[in-house]
Amino acid sequence: MVDAEQKSIKQSDISRITVKDIAVEAGVSVSTVSRALANDPVIAKETRERVMRKAKEMGYRPNFFARGLIRQRSGVVALFVNNITNPFYPEVLVKLSRRLQKMKLHTMIFTSDDGVEDSVPALQEINPDVAILLAATMKADYLQEFNDSNTPVILFNRYVAGASASAICCDNTAGGRLVAERLAQSGYRHLAFIEGLATASTNVDRLAGYLEGIAASGLPDPVIYSGGDFSYENGYAGMRQLYARDQRIDAVFCANDIIAVGASDCIRRELGLRVPEDIAIVGFDDIALASWPSHDLTTVRQPMDDMIDCVITEILRFQQNRSATPKQYFMPGELIIRGSANLADGRVNE
């Protein structure tokens, strides 16, 4: 019992060790300890090693928030996400977090069902080096609050017109256009589209490109189901509504893969039809389940790794200069042909 209490006391003492304590034990100034712990080359190697050795002996654990106040950099990257149920974004979070860890940056994740505006006060308290918005919708005036606090913002797979923020996106307009052109070339004539969240730039651009491709191919306007979100349930309900409106539909482009899976299930289970023989389905994102045999989904693959590379590039730029001019990156997607649409054989369905 006594040993346990002593151990608890020792652990408590360790948690309160400060750079001042280390300075006293090492016989140097507090500023020397701070610089040595930061591996500052100005400090002599022998002194730096003595400080590091003493810090280890004393069980020192750095408080990165306190260090951030001194260095005017928190070492924190704030990630905002409000659509974590879409498998695309958890994969991005994992890959991006691992890259940030290698850069010795700390990650803080904020989630919300409706948006990220409620998280703005918390963000201002921690003063991150950079704020990254994934799958988030945010108005330009809220982005201005970040700018007012001198926090650089990176929008991932989103952009806000007129906002002072870097944007890193798949070229969603080109992706939508590519889908329409390939469907038309393969003989599909009665096209449809199931929207995601109407205000999301990804949805807006994918639909815009799809409409451009359809018009360029000389096909009639598609039947569009709108008013939903990026969910499986929206895909299922949307497919039901589309077919009730026009039973000639032979191909449906969906705003993302989750919607596409919902639409496919509706076709098979409720409408009693076949994919792709009766109705072809195309998604967007190329999440892991798109390649599963049960879905075998034709989709547009986002260049996730290249997009994350750009995020890292922007973080490094903003670390050098928090006032650096924001940049926009639009990267081409890749059409991945699988079994949910006959795009390779030029199928004709008049």
UniProtKB/TrEMBL annotation:
UniProt cross-references to CDD domains, sorted A to Z: HTH_LacI (cd01392), PBP1_LacI-like (cd06278)
One GO MF term, please? Answer: DNA-binding transcription factor activity
- What PROSITE patterns does UniProt report for this protein, alphabetically? HTH_LACI_1, HTH_LACI_2
InterPro entries (alphabetical) = HTH_LacI, LacI/GalR-like_sensor, Lambda_DNA-bd_dom_sf, Peripla_BP_I
- Is DNA-binding tagged as a keyword? yes
Q: Enumerate the UniProt keywords alphabetically.
A: DNA-binding, Transcription, Transcription regulation
Q: Which residues form the HTH lacI-type domain?
A: 17-71
According to UniProt, the name of this protein is Transcriptional regulator, LacI family
